[in-house]
Amino acid sequence: MKPTISIVVAIFNRKDELFELLNSLTQQTDKDFEIIIVDDGSFMDLKLTIKNFEEILNIKYFRKDNSGPGLSRNYGAKRADNEWLVFVDSDVIVEKDYIENIKKEIIEIPCDAFGGADKAHKGFNLMQKAISYSMTSVFTTGGIRGNKKAVSKFQPRSFNMGVKKEVFEKVGGFSEMRIGEDPDLSMTLWENGFTTAFFDTIAVYHKRRVDLGKFSKQVYQFGCARPILNQRHPNYVKISFAFPSLFMLGYIVGFIEYFLLGRGIILGFYGLYTFMVLFHALIVTKNISIAGMAVISTYIQMFSYGYGFLKSWILLNVLRMKPEDAFPKHFHKK
Q1: Distances in Å between the alpha carbon of 153 and those of 156, 226, 299?
Q2: How far is CA 170 from CA 42, 142, 164, 334, in A?
Q3: Structural domain of residue 247, as residue ranges?
Q4: Across the beta sheet with 118-119, what order do the strands follow?
Q5: Domain count of the chain?
Q6: 199 and 238 in one domain?
Q7: Structural domain contains residue 131
Q8: Within 13 A of 278's CA, how many CA atoms are on the CB side?
Q9: What H or E segment, with its residue span, contains residue 73?
Q10: CATH (domain of 190)
Q11: Among 114, 126, 170, 296, whose CB has the most other CB atoms within 10 angstroms?
């Protein structure tokens, strides 16, 4: 018997992105699924967008007060009818065999939760493609950390994530965290004995940010969230989480070495790193303009994430502040 799927989308504004997502879902080869749209207190009316698809897709629409994506997904999950909950962000586009491949993978790879990769669509602009490279590259904080040989340790992300509804309910769904709620859920699943898997046939096209300023703020918040997650899940702390902070500090030390001692040994390593990113990005994207932008977005990602991580680590571990006091915007106020 094939698995049954409920797609849950928590959305705040992003009317145009919602149209593109729903349009991609109309083209599915397997049309047996429902869609739960949870409007998380948007300022704009999303009903007109949804009405365009009500006769084509099995859609349920709900509007609620703003609480952040995690709790909004919980709201949608309670109203889903099917066995599996599939969470996607409102700014993704899926391939026509997305649902079909999910069902195939679930049957072939037994698990309690799964995730897939994200990639850049050919229609994305150059900056979107550069940022997509930075967010998925092995030279940054991105990259796929799971594979067929290590399915039990892949951390699904909520832009492309599936969980058995009964399992989701057993662990209480997403926490009150507004940022980092998806790795928090993944580690909570592990702590309760559940397994996760990486499905390599269900990648989505993820738009992410198209402005470097907004991208910097986003990855800064991700960096702030990681020490909070380390406190909540100490068994899954990795030294590699601190790499962006060390990268940032090393760069500063390199400039001090250059101006005070007249040597550029440390900066030489950063020059090599820059060349490696440029060369790798050129191979991956096959476009020199995107590769050049990818170098810039990669440094922005490393510095912003690194600063956020270092700031959060000091506040939580040196000054001993509670996460809710140090970063009140990272948590939903009950």
Answers
A1: 9, 17, 28
A2: 29, 29, 10, 21
A3: 230-330
A4: 92-94, 204-206, 118-119
A5: 2
A6: no
A7: no
A8: 10
A9: helix 69-78
A10: 3.90.550.10
A11: 114
